[in-house]
Design a protein that fits this description.
single chain, mainly beta, 4-stranded antiparallel β-sheet, 23 strands
Length: about 325
C-alpha cells in the first residue's frame, strides 16, 4: 500500500541495508571515520523498525557483510580481515583472509563460510569455520577476483573467476571500478564447485558480474558483461544433481541502466544475498534496461515463450521475498 509502518531517526546516511533471514534485524552500512579522522565504512545493526540496536559494530575502509541463514549474526569482510558479529553486536576478529572477494558466503545449516584466501602467494577457494578456529579446507584454486554464490541446498557453490586478458583501447572509455583504466579487457568463467570434495565443472566462459541462484537452487542466473560495448547478456544455467557441464541458455542482451550497472551489478557479490533478481518461486527474474524509450523494468520467464516483458519504468528493480509463514 505504500504506508509507512515504522521509522527511526539516524545520524548516518546509510548506503546499504540488508535484512537478517528471520526479519528481526537490519545490517546498515554508512560513512564514518576512525580515531584519526580517516574515512571508514561503519556497520550499525538496527531492529525491525529501524531503531539502533548496536552502533559501530564494525568498521573498515572496505566492509562487506553476510547474515547467517540460521540465526541473526553476521560474517564481515573488513579490509583483509574476517570478523564474526554476534547477536549482541560484539565483533570477533578471526584473522587475515586477503582481499580477493567481497562478502563471505555462509553454507546453510553449518558454522562454515566459503571465501578465498591467499596461501603462500596463491589464491584458493576455501571453507572456513566461523567459531574462531582457524581451520581451512581447500576447495581448489581461485582468481585474485572471485565471486561466490552458495546454492541454497549447501552442496555446491557457483564461482565466477575474472582475469585480465589483453589490452583494448576501446575499453578505456568505460569508467567502472572493476576495470583499470589501462585499456585492459576482462575475461573469466563460471564454475560449479562441490563443497564436500572440491570437484568442479566449468559451465560458462566469459566475464561475469552477477551470479545468483534462484531460491529453489535449480537455476543459476549469470550476467555476462561486454565492457567495451557497455551491454550485457543474461544467461541461465539449469543445475541438476551431480556436476554436469550443461550449456547455459541465453535469455536477453541489453544495455543496463547506469544506476543498475554502477551501483548494483558491479558490486553483485555483496548484493545477491539481499536484493534479489529472482522471483520467490524461482521461475522468472527482473532487471532494468536503458532503451530509446527511457529506462524500463523488465521480467523474463526462464522456461516461458517469448521475449522479456516490460512492466513499467524505473532505474532498478528487485523482487520482494515471500513473507515468512506465521
Amino acid at each position: 500500500t505504500g504506508t509507512l509502518l515504522a521509522g527511526a531517526p539516524t545520524d548516518r546516511l546509510y548506503f546499504f541495508l540488508s535484512w537478517s533471514h528471520d526479519g528481526t534485524r537490519i545490517a546498515a552500512l554508512g560513512p564514518g571515520t576512525d580515531d584519526n579522522g580517516e574515512p571508514q565504512t561503519v556497520l550499525d545493526i538496527l531492529d525491525a523498525d529501524g531503531a539502533m540496536l548496536h552502533a559501530d559494530a564494525a568498521s573498515a575502509q572496505s566492509l562487506y557483510v553476510a547474515w547467517d541463514p540460521d540465526q541473526p549474526r553476521l560474517a564481515a569482510h573488513a579490509d583483509d580481515r574476517l570478523l564474526r558479529v554476534d547477536t549482541d553486536g560484539t565483533a570477533t576478529d578471526l584473522g587475515a583472509v586477503g582481499t580477493g572477494f567481497f562478502a563471505p558466503k555462509w553454507i546453510p545449516s553449518s558454522d562454515e563460510l566459503v571465501l578465498t584466501t591467499d596461501i603462500e602467494g596463491t589464491t584458493f577457494l576455501v571453507r572456513r569455520s566461523i567459531d574462531g578456529q582457524d581451520t581451512l579446507r581447500s576447495l581448489g584454486p581461485a582468481e585474485a577476483e572471485t565471486g561466490i554464490s552458495v546454492n541454497p541446498d549447501g552442496d555446491v557453490a557457483a564461482i565466477s573467476r575474472s582475469f585480465d586478458v589483453e589490452n583494448d583501447p576501446a575499453a578505456e572509455r568505460i569508467d567502472l571500478p572493476f576495470l583499470p583504466q589501462t585499456g585492459t579487457t576482462r575475461s573469466g568463467s563460471v564454475e560449479i564447485v562441490d563443497l564436500d570434495t572440491g570437484d568442479r565443472v566449468e559451465v560458462f566462459t566469459g566475464f561475469t558480474l552477477w551470479v545468483e541462484w534462484n531460491p529453489q537452487g535449480t537455476h543459476l542466473l549469470i550476467y555476462e558483461a561486454d565492457v567495451a560495448a557497455g551491454t550485457g547478456t543474461w544467461w541461465v544455467y539449469e543445475h541438476r544433481p551431480g556436476l554436469e557441464p550443461l550449456p547455459a541458455t541465453e535469455i536477453a542482451t541489453f544495455e543496463p541502466t547506469p544506476i543498475f550497472l554502477r551501483s548494483y551489478l558491479v558490486f553483485a557479490d555483496q548484493f545477491i544475498e539481499s536484493p534479489r533478481l529472482w522471483s520467490p518461486d524461482g521461475t522468472e527474474f527482473v532487471y532494468a534496461e536503458l532503451t530509446d524509450r527511457g529506462s524500463l523494468i523488465r521480467t523474463a520467464v526462464v522456461d516461458g515463450p517469448g521475449q522479456p516483458t516490460a512492466i513499467g519504468t524505473g532505474e532498478v528493480g528487485f523482487w520482494s521475498p515471500s513473507p515468512p509463514a506465521r
